[in-house]
Write a structure and sequence with these properties.
This protein is an alpha+beta fold. Helix content is 27%, strand content 31%. It has 4 helices and 8 strands.
């Protein structure tokens, strides 16, 4: 009996260590600005969903944590190949930066890609909707929506709505 308990505890310990290691890589919290290199960022956080190379040699890497995740991280790497910073971008400050008249690429640079399951085309109005799942200030899930003119790819409008996919049509809480 004691042998089974010891094995169970060892298994729990291994699981806990793996969970902590996975969480560190999830957000890049184990990386150090000014010290960590681009290969270390990618080893820790994985392959980015999108990469932008700037004229000065710096790069911006998008890490959406989905498909049902509520966070997207942007890693900024300088021309010297060193990490400058990592930012969570799905927040009201960045949503406010998205304005009518912007292009799809400008929106992607701010928020990263939306989930493919939350992309919808509305043929009657010729609009394309991109949505991002995020956690609001009350720790409940919401969507931030960007409506594009489907012909031009230019932002028409933005908005927010609750995620009502929880039991009984209630907003699911965020599990942070």
């Amino acid at each position: 009996m004691e042998r089974n308990s010891s094995g169970w505890r060892r298994g729990l310990l291994v699981f806990s260590v793996l969970l902590v290691a996975a969480c560190a890589g999830y957000s890049g919290s184990n990386l150090k600005p000014g010290v960590s290199t681009l290969p270390e960022v990618m080893a820790s956080m994985g392959s980015p969903a999108m990469v932008w190379k700037n004229p000065d040699g710096s790069e911006q890497l998008a890490y959406p944590r989905g498909p049902a995740g509520t966070q997207t991280f942007m890693a900024y790497v300088g021309p010297d190949g060193k990490l400058q910073r990592i930012e969570k971008v799905l927040n009201v400050e960045n949503f406010a930066r998205v304005q009518a008249g912007m292009s799809k690429d400008q929106v992607l640079r701010i928020l990263g890609p939306s989930g493919s399951q939350w992309t919808q085309f509305y043929s009657r109005s010729n609009q394309l909707a991109w949505s991002w799942l995020f956690c609001n200030a009350w720790n409940a899930q919401e969507f931030f929506d960007v409506m594009f003119d489907a012909s031009t790819g230019i932002v028409h409008s933005t908005g927010q709505h609750p995620n009502l996919a929880g039991p009984g049509g209630v907003q699911p809480p965020c599990s942070q």
